[in-house]
Design brief:
Strands 3-2-4-7-1-8-11-10-9 form a nine-stranded mixed β-sheet. It has 14 helices and eleven strands. Helix 10 packs across helix 11. It is an alpha/beta fold.
């Protein structure tokens, strides 16, 4: 029996993004096609080469206001693609490219494109736009039965208690946490596609309005319009590709109850996923040149710094304090595109994966990390944890 990791039979061959902004005057479907066509071209392929399609999220969430646009059938029909594999991914996906990598590794397809489209910037500004997650149904049922009665209408309300617990356990201060959004805003200033590029100071952060204590405005990702597409190809087709990136290892482990309000240790999230990841590679944390760690909220980047072993448990506050270690010229450049806190909420690790590929190819422009050969990418944490190491081909 072969012991080869399935991810070694797959590569990320292309990335593409549409225009990104707080409000883009194009439909979600148009943005989706823009990103897909850009990703296919970036891979050095044609639409005729694509035989697999995947989108996030799939199912009934595909056309919620601001949440996703362009379903599998619409895209397949518009591009006249013949598929051998399709998948509508729903919440619970470890990483954007996890399912497509399995598809090409098993021979179900040769070139799969997966996309994520958001129109949350527009929806948030339009009358009757996207409401808080928990306020869309008249009845509190399922997980909402435990959340709505206490006012947990959106993710920030669910994550804030985790931040409070972590601060209590390890002494993290808001002055220290500020360096996540402040440093990432400095990185975004070098990203022409970032939503926010104006400098941000620690004082600006501390004076910002509170959203759900202890998380303030700048701890939260930025609703945006935009689409990201990723092409995953069979590794044995690498010679046909423009600039493939190797998937060294990836993992996704949920070792506790899949519910934010029932998670047992609120100060430790993502550790089991990281342990599983490092067990699949000879690389170590010190080998990572650039880290694209999920930051739907700033505390999630704190979780991943510790879970991935870039610093010890309870040490993340000291690690990020002052911003030097996580700056572009630091020992672990963090979210070099500005992350979701300044680059925009492209969601589900799509923006992070795209930036990791750019860095490994040397195509990140003014924010390029010299000699980057290993990139870490993570997604969410806890109930939807995923982590990967990508390496230069």
């Amino acid at each position: 029996m072969s012991t080869e990791l399935f991810e070694h039979r797959a590569v990320i061959s292309g990335i593409g993004q549409s225009a990104i902004g707080r409000r883009i005057d194009r439909s979600g479907f148009q943005l989706t096609l823009d990103a897909i066509l850009a990703a296919v071209d970036d891979a050095g392929l044609t639409v005729a080469d694509i035989d697999g399609l995947a989108m996030f999220p799939g199912g009934g969430m595909a056309n919620l206001p601001g949440y996703a646009n362009g379903n599998l059938y619409e895209v397949q029909d518009a591009l006249r693609i013949t598929t051998t594999w399709r998948q509508g991914l729903v919440e619970g996906m470890a990483l954007p490219f996890y399912g497509p990598a399995q598809a090409v590794a098993t021979g179900a397809a040769r070139h799969v494109v997966i996309w994520r489209t958001v129109k949350e910037g527009s929806a948030a500004r339009d009358a009757g736009g996207r409401p808080a997650y928990g306020s869309t149904k008249p009845l509190a049922e399922g997980p909402n039965a435990w959340l709505l009665p206490i006012g947990m209408l959106s993710p920030v309300c669910q994550i804030a208690p985790f931040a409070t617990r972590y601060m209590y356990e390890y002494g993290l201060t808001r002055e220290q946490l500020a360096w996540i959004p402040v440093t990432q805003r400095a990185h975004a200033a070098r990203n022409p596609d970032a939503v926010y590029r104006k400098p941000l100071s620690v004082d600006d952060y501390l004076e910002a309005r509170m959203i759900s204590t202890p998380l303030c405005l700048f701890d939260c990702d930025v609703p945006a319009d935009g689409a990201t597409a990723i092409v995953v190809s069979a590794a044995d087709r690498a010679a046909d590709l423009r600039a493939p990136v190797r998937i060294e290892a990836m993992a996704g482990v949920v070792d506790d109850r899949p519910s934010w309000d029932q998670w047992q240790d609120m100060s430790r999230v993502g550790h089991s996923t990281a342990e599983a990841l490092w067990a699949r590679t000879a690389l170590r944390p010190a080998d990572v040149d650039v880290a694209q760690l999920y930051d739907g909220f700033s505390i999630e980047a704190i979780w991943w710094l510790e879970a991935m072993g870039f610093c010890g448990v309870g040490e993340a506050g000291g690690f990020i304090d002052g911003g030097k270690r996580i700056a572009l010229d630091g020992e672990l450049p963090l979210n070099t595109w500005g992350g979701q806190l300044s680059g925009g909420r492209l969601h589900a690790g799509f923006g992070h994966a795209a930036e990791a590929v750019r860095q490994l190819r040397g195509e990140a422009g003014e924010r390029q990390i010299s000699g980057a050969e290993v990139a870490a990418v993570t997604n969410v944490g806890g109930i939807e944890a995923g982590a990967a190491l990508l390496t230069r081909w």
